[in-house]
Amino acid sequence: MCGIVGYVGDKHKAQDVLLKGLKMLEYRGYDSCGVAMIADDEVFLERVEGRVSALEKKISGKKFNNILNGIAHTRWATHGLPSEANAHPHTDCDGDIVVVHNGIIENYIELKEGLKGHTFKSETDTEVIVHLIEENVKKLMKKDMGKRSEMLEPLFFEAFLNTLRKLKGSFAIAVIWKKAPGMILAARRFSPLVIGKGEGENFLASDVAGFIEWTKNVYFVDDNEVVFLDKNNVAFFNLDGKKINKELKTVNWDIKMAEKGGYKHFMLKEIFEQEMGFENTLMGRVLPVGKYILGNEMNLKEDDIKKFSMINFVACGTAYHAAYIGRYLFERMGMRADVDLASEFSSRSLVVDKNSLVVAISQSGETADTIDALRIAKKNGNKILAITNTLGSTITREADYVMYTHCGPEIAVASTKAFTSQLAALYVLALSFSYIRGNLLITKAREFAEELLSLAKLIKESLEINDYVEELADKFSAQDDYLFIGRGINYPVALEGALKLKEISYLHAEGYAAGEMKHGPIAIITNGMPVIVIATSSSDIDLVRGNIEETRARGGVVVAVVDKNSKQKIRADYYLEVPYASECFMPVLNIIPLQLFAYWTAVRRGTDIDKPRNLAKSVTVK
Length: 622
Ligand code: AGP
Fold this sequence. Notes:
The protein is α/β, with parallel strands linked by helices. It folds into two domains: 2-259, Glutamine Phosphoribosylpyrophosphate, subunit 1, domain 1, CATH 3.60.20; 267-605, Glucose-6-phosphate isomerase like protein, domain 1 (Rossmann fold, 3-Layer(aba) Sandwich), CATH 3.40.50.10490. The protein is 35% helix and 23% strand. Helix 12 (368-379) links the parallel strand 20 (357-362) and strand 21. The radius of gyration is 26 Å and the shape is globular. 2-deoxy-2-amino glucitol-6-phosphate binds at residues 316-319, 362-364, 367, 370, 413-415, 503, 618-619.
């Protein structure tokens, strides 16, 4: 997830608007950034590795006259390490056309192959866009040189449309051209893009925070819409170039809220970004025909996959809970798997089979315990696969193979969208390993692929329970002790639900395997004590029903996570209903109400939700 900003007009200094906009969008990505402006008919372009403050220092003191327009970008790397060369904006061969992009161009490799003779200066997928525009401009110029040469704006627009129709994947793009100064073209598909309407000036950004200081009049761009901006006009088109009307809205956010996209906390914003994170992590890796592509970022050969004797997961905290679910997935797919807390791995490492693939999961890629465990396994002779959300992080430099989640930077200490994105990566991994090792028939692979590709929409549906959970959390305002229980693949979900609640509300919350209730935990059930039970459809539903009855018989108040089928089979005091999916996919949906429950409980308790006491986003000490 990156942040893009654009400005056209002369009422404010373009460099001030662009830098301020980038600062407001830095939470979307901050490993590198850059700005391009057309001033005095020349393209000025500056990029840095690092934060916007470094860019500001680099261009401060420079004088720009007669600036007509500008675009800028702050990056969260997905393809190509964080570096100046990979930072946006990117230009065509002559440096006249300049582009910034947020998203993933899935077919950038094949497009690049069709651009022979172009000089590429970065490892990014984005650079393909600007060379494709260059190619299309040249084609149109050649087609009828005479008429077109003085009408460069329509030609630029047509070349842009021809380019967009070739792109697969997600994008929010802004592009400027030295020969068509004073205008910006933009477009979106899956990645957010908003337009700010000013008086004698217009703005664009990844979200309202990018220009709310200058205007609160906003057009929200929808998928496959194209935008033309100059200082007095904003016009919208579909991909065929047909004009479309859009409603101008006024937002009443203040600056602080705008940075969180209108949400009160980053945590809630990130809970609601899970549909995007899950979808982007699957993008380009799962085909409906049942083909799972591990992507060339993984240089993991099929012969290697066939040779691994088993999988050993190592991780901490929320990533450990995702890894625990990964263990169930691999076992279900016919491959031996085990999971260890990274901090406990050293005592176990002596018995880990050398031919096992050790999979280290870490959102930050910097967790000391996880890196330590990875180094022990390497010394042991194991191959290492890292699943992480952070390009260029330490774990990516130490692993043999890397699989990225693509949910954008996670700002809140409590991990939410990273968790479900890690599950997306684990589904691809488990299904592709199983298929390659001959444990999964193509028919079953196709079935799983289709259901996997439908999950992002079911995440969105699950989030509709938000208002009900807000009310429910209030009913337990007098409670200080909570128990979360689940069976099988939902046991780690219970652990994760308890962790979310304890780390942001500071309440005592414990996750347990439901089958363990009679071996001790049932002794703590007191009258009115909330017991959150994951009771969605599964082969264990009858046993879960027994646990619920045991709990109710002792005065516990049961909050059950159910689907429409399982709801008929159990009795609870409150129901948190999520859509139905196959048992192995349910953790992705079951965690949603538990994340929301933790959030609203913490809101009620007035804790510092995004930065809970005693905790850090990345624990880089052992
Ligand atoms: C989860 O909400 C916590 N913030 C914490 O347990 C976290 O998951 C753990 O520290 C691991 O972080 P990582 O994924 O960056 O390695």
